[in-house]
Design brief:
The chain has one helix spanning 22-36; strands at residues 2-5, 8-12, 63-66. The protein has 74 residues and is of the alpha+beta class. It has a 3-stranded antiparallel β-sheet, with no helix packed on it. A hairpin with a 2-residue loop joins strand 1 and strand 2.
Amino acid sequence: MTLYRNGTAVGAGAGRDALGHPAAALAWLTEAASRHGPALRAGDLVRTGGLAAAVPLEPGDVVHAEFEYPAISE
């Protein structure tokens, strides 16, 4: 993913940047929470991380993101 502000690239990242895969970050959190409490519960909302760092915005800024998806092998 590439993040743009007013047509200029201001950040980039990929899902694999979160411990190799976003699901790995969730697995780590689940294990850590069960050991140190409170454990995750059904219905909890978990965010595994942003794909780019937060950027400052000003009124009138235009922000968009472009995503690339890997080809799916059959």
